[in-house]
Amino acid sequence: MKKLAIGILTVITIMSCKKEAEKKEKSIVVEYPTTTKVDTVTNYFGTNVKDPYRWLEDDRSPETEAWVKAENKTTYAYLDNIPYRKKLKQRLEKLWNYEKIGAPFVEGDYTYFYKNDGLQNQYVIYRYKTGEDPNTATVFLDPNTFKEDGTISLGGTSFSKDGKTLAYAISEGGSDWRKILVMDTESKKIVEDTLIDIKFSGMSWYKNEGFYYSSYDKPKGSELSAKTDQHKVYYHKLGTSQKEDQLIFGGTPSQKHRYIYGSVTEDDRYLLISPRVSTSGNKLYIKDLTQPNSKLVEIIGNTDSDTYLIENQGSKLFLVTNLNAPNKKIVTVDASNPTPENWVDFIPETKNVLSPSTAGGYFFTEYMVDAVSKVMQYDYDGKLVREVKLPGVGSASGFGAKKEEKELYYSFTNYVTPGSIYKYDIETGTSELFRKPNIDFNPENYESKQVFYNSKDGTKVPMIITHKKGLTLDGKNPTILYGYGGFNVSLTPSFSIANAVWMEQGGIYAVPNLRGGGEYGKAWHDAGTQLKKQNVFDDFIAAAEYLINQKYTSSDFLAIRGGSNGGLLVGATMTQRPDLMKVALPAVGVLDMLRYHTFTAGAGWAYDYGTAEDNKEMFDYLLGYSPVHNVKEGTQYPATMVTTGDHDDRVVPAHSFKFAAELQAKQTGNNPVLIRIETDAGHGAGTPVSKTIEQYADIYGFTLYNMGFEVLPTEIENFKD
């Protein structure tokens, strides 16, 4: 039987004679599609758990396809009723339409850079002869020609050591599965057969002869959802077919690794192999490529730390590690005896998290100080040369270049400063502005400040709040609270065109640095994992309560948003505290915590989550917050728009399908529950600009409309009076 929900939305109309806003009611009838229930039950440690929508996990079935079409039809019928959705799209397009140019980099005889004229679906690679006028640059590789609608994207590039050959990966429809093509950079012609069925891979060249890459065996069943948990590293020699590629590491059933990466040092002397069981912690092996029959030598044989090689001087290795150093440090050791007992501190651990790079014969150490960048320059003796003077308070990145380079290019941004590129003289330490975007946005009209608030257990958590200057703290400002809180990922300040449009409408954009992230090192990450995952949700809830208590906003004007692990964050928060927000926007979320590890590479997330098969304590804990399993009958949930992509093979869309079905079946009250399923789109990377703009127009339109705005806030004088 079809379920009807009447969305009675409080909206605002203008009384032109008084120039003030008055609330009145308007209703939209939402008729949700029928979602069949099945009698699927799984027993976990003596507890039977129903899974009535498991059939939606079959992404190849005609029934799932029909459900997707029906849900999208319902969603777009609703969105079509939002009167200013088109205006939001037009403003997004106008603001997005400026030239964007990436930092230059040298490969062989040419200097390359990425450029987007404004609204191109994908960035284009340009190049010019190094030393010549950059204005002579011509198109080198244009991914917009791969497919007219932009749904085939560039998934990574790697040049041979002499720059004469390029290996580049492409993604079709947003999938994590890639193809690799090999091009002669002078003629721009493809010179080999395409390599296929490659996933979660870099491309690391050995001299000019070939490259190392990683992949899984093609899974049985659906390519987009079947489990992939046996990663392998291969070597592809130019001039040979893929079936002749040499297996370097992996494929041993007794030593299963879900992620393995191979990389070659800049001097071609060593191959490093980094096997992982989960997304945190890795083993590390080294092979001397100057000795034809050399064996892999173990540096670290367990996954208790994250360790990688950043540089070498002959046999002297420079390793970055968090072994006995939660905030990371750099150590040195000789390749002949590289195990931890022989390590010597080179740049010791500090109270701030280290993210180092190398350029021009120096080390550059970026530190996060309360999620804000601080950069130091060291020589190869470990002596501090200088602190790099940055243009302001924000995020700096890109302090990397080849050893022979005399200058590097880095980018700087924050929530109100569009990303600008600076040229840095490596010897003198002077920076000069290289390129500043010409965008229709004035940072002087906005402010961004960091606050600290207490979470439920008293932990102090930082949050950056950004908005127009002169904001009135009356609790009526439309606010998006965005979070992630997992996988050691750090949310540092960066400019977003979409966020700029939101703030133009008087909106507040707030980002807390939740536990589970990497802002304060491994201890901060671990404090939001497995049986401590609730800390992350508590941190997010406390952030919302801070914004409400300080009158930035109120529950009627608060939206919560996050993607992937952040989608889990939104799903858990809205099911635990449905009263706290007016709108919930979970994107590509991990929402079924009992089954996430059975799809694609999901088992590799167990470091952060644990699995329902580990033990009864872990099962009970996961069941206690799993969003799909905690939607309750008779509860009024906030207006919700779930977003996902039909080609998402990172977090399969079944998570979002099942969560939306549960919400639609059990929602009480007037708030709509919609799911927007993008076609030919994956987890997010490579999404065409046109699709991104449409998605933001829909998200912002849905959010403002359910906060009660019949017209855009900028069109209402004193709209909160």
Automatic annotation (TrEMBL):
Is the Hydrolase keyword given for this protein? yes
Keywords associated with the record:
Hydrolase, Protease, Serine protease
Q: Does the keyword Aminoacyl-tRNA synthetase apply?
A: no
Q: Which domain of life is it from?
A: Bacteria
The protein's annotated catalytic reaction(s) are:
Hydrolysis of Pro-|-Xaa >> Ala-|-Xaa in oligopeptides
Q: What are the EC numbers?
A: 3.4.21.26
User: What general EC class does the enzyme of this chain belong to?
Assistant: hydrolase
Peptidase S9A N-terminal domain residues: 33-436
Tell me which Pfam families the record gives.
Peptidase_S9, Peptidase_S9_N
Q: Where is the Peptidase S9 prolyl oligopeptidase catalytic domain?
A: 493-708
Which family is this protein grouped under?
Answer: Belongs to the peptidase S9A family.
Xref: PANTHER family: PROLYL ENDOPEPTIDASE
Protein name (database record) = prolyl oligopeptidase
